[in-house]
Amino acid sequence: MSPSTAGTPGLLRGLLGPRHPGHAMPLDDLGALTLPVGDDGVVIGDDAEGRPQMIGFHRPIPYEVLLIGGLWTAQVLALRAAGTGARVAVETGRAQAWTTLAQAAGAGLECMTLHGVGRVPPMGATVGSPVVVVRDCGMRPPRGRVVASPWQSVLTLLPYMSPVAPRLMRNSALVGVQRVSPGEAEQIGKILGLSASEIEALPTLADGVTLWCAGADRQWVMTMGTDAESGLLGVARRMD
Question: What is the C-alpha separation between 191 and 236, in angstroms, rounded?
Answer without folding.
Answer: 27
